[in-house]
Amino acid sequence: MDKKSHTDKVLPVERDGASVLGVKSMDVDDESLPETESDSDDVLRSWIVDCIYQLSKNANLEPTEKFPLQKEILKFLAVQGLFTASLGIEVTSFELQEKLKWPKKPASVQIRRLCIEQMHHLLADAERLLISEKRTEINESMQHEVSPLESSDLGAYAICFLGTLQNIPSVSLFWALSKDDEHTFNKILDAETQLFRAAHKGGYNFSRMQAMRFLLIQLLLQIPLRHGEICETASELLICCKEVFGSVIELDVEIYNDENVMPDFMDVLIDALLSLLPQSPAPVRLAVEQVFRCFCDSITDSGLMHMLQVVKKDLKPPRRKTIVLGDSDEEDPIEIEESESGDEFKESEDEEHTDDNLEEQESNVQTEPTLQEKNLQETGDSEDMDSEFDDEAMFRLDTYLAQIVKEKNNAVGSDTAQSQLVHFKLRVLSLLEFYLQRNSNKPIVLTIFSCLLQAFEKNSSPTEGNEQLADRIRVILERKICKAKEYPKGPGVNFLLLKCLLDKALKLVSRPKGKRMESLAQTCSFWLLKVIHGNLNKVKLEDISQIFLASLEDFFTNKKCCLKGGFLREVFRRHHWLGTAFFRMLAENFLKTKSDFLRYEALSLLDALIRPWIGKSAQNSYQNLQFLEVHLSSLSDLIRHLLQKKAHKKSFRMQALQFCKGVLEAIQLLGLEKPFAQLLQFHKLVTCESYIGDLFQTKLDLDS
């Protein structure tokens, strides 16, 4: 019988966790076990510990029925993993009203570690349950004070249970802790207890308190396993607790007295959360993510810049120089890597990146030997924010990266360090993704967009990039930024950054960097134009037209340009205000270019411009009338050329006919028939009858 079958068949019989599992007697009576070697004992005991947790995980029970089961498992794991008894193998706790038992043969360090790890997972499952169920009894219990031993909160019960055992004279921690670790251990116990009581009194954000509590509990379990590594992070989290919940809890923690020195508590919190992401187990990372979700609406721009520093950090310098496209005097937020290769990447399938599959996703990371290091050149405010992390705020990140480099140098032929960095980046990207989901309308999104687009371009390199990182970044750019319902608005939108980003996006579209890059660059271009149109006045829109003019000229003059006519037509269709600035230029290109393909590409772009003035949705506005009056001469020259020099291909002739019909319909709608007929000199065109029949006669109301 496997674990799942055992759970499904045994648990429905009796739903009292203690009696079903026999937790109190498991692994405490060695008389029934044959004398075996230590390794064999460890194998058996590890199997027991694993089975106990799996029973809780796979139990198909209601939350109220599952809690007693989880509580019994928690007590067993805590006793076997954290504590030892100095007087025999059995201790009675009057406060808990039960007997605690230890095996006659003490558990090994390996088994104790396994017990603590399973406690991590058990508490993470309990937190998920509280988040997903959002049970009404939790909200109702906030109206009155509840004892941790009587509540249905497994985290609160765990802290109360550990504190009770720690106060029993004959029971002590198995793990030898330093003074700092012991001090941190006790501080976390006190902080969690106060947060639990404050949360159930009401008046504060319950979800914030809940998330912070479970993170502190997870860190408390890490203290025995990571000696000296948790103290600093835990101290920072306790400082944040005092800053946020200081009016309802009293914590004895040291904070800066000088307001000029004290950083924003959110910067301290982000620094602490990031320090936990690289090497912590999955349950700790889940708790970190939940805290970030609850606090991300208050995150500062400098905190976001700290996260972006992680995304763009690499282990090795670039093999090749990078070229910056655009004006050399400006600082560009995106660097486009010089590449002689025009190889196309294989189009990868879109993947949904959710919290549930993140751990599985990271386990399949594919890493390349190197990544290029390119520092993001920020403009304006971004540069100022970045500079805040040159010293103390970046110390922990730099320390971790230095540790990775050291491991990489020591592990010859190994990509462990690179894999760790990729994992770290994926976890930070998950936090950024959630922030963007909630704050897609903030101006700082442009800076995030800039960094992510640069990181995508770098990781798309077939030789020096990482395909999984590239796919992850592409999904965030497309779904959380470009396809979001809202976009950056307000006075904080950086116009210079917008111009630079659009220029780089258009250059990425026109460069042969593969289908994946081309598709994303087009999507980004559409989004940037939407942001521009929604924020800027006519004067600044003219500056944007100049950026697009360079791309149009490249399209008609550069044979290596990879811009597609369909992309340009879609731009004009979505942003008609942009296309009208190029009407005369497109008409001139049609008349002077020698290539039939480019000539009729220009004609199709012109047709896209006049479409808003044709059909039922057309508007007879003064702006349209004024525009056609200005360009009436160019239109007449264009149509005269179409009538006199018919195209050889039937498809081109049909395109010309449709364009002529569209122009005449727009002219008729705006009442410009007579001035247009005079410019066209219709009576001199002897070929018009055979070419388009009586179209001109009808539309312009002329005699044959």
Automatic annotation (TrEMBL):
Segments of this protein annotated with the region Disordered: 1-38, 322-386
Ranges of Acidic residues composition bias in the record: 28-38, 327-362
GO cellular component, one term: nucleolus
Annotated TM spans: none
Alphabetized InterPro entries for the sequence: DNA_pol_V/MYBBP1A
Skewed-composition ranges (Polar residues): 363-379
Compositionally biased tracts (Basic and acidic residues): 1-17
Key word Nucleus present: yes
One function term, GO molecular function aspect: DNA binding
Example GO BP: regulation of DNA-templated transcription
UniProt KW keywords: Nucleus
PANTHER family, alphabetized: MYB-BINDING PROTEIN 1A (PTHR13213:SF2), MYB-BINDING PROTEIN 1A FAMILY MEMBER (PTHR13213)
Name of the featured protein: DNA polymerase V
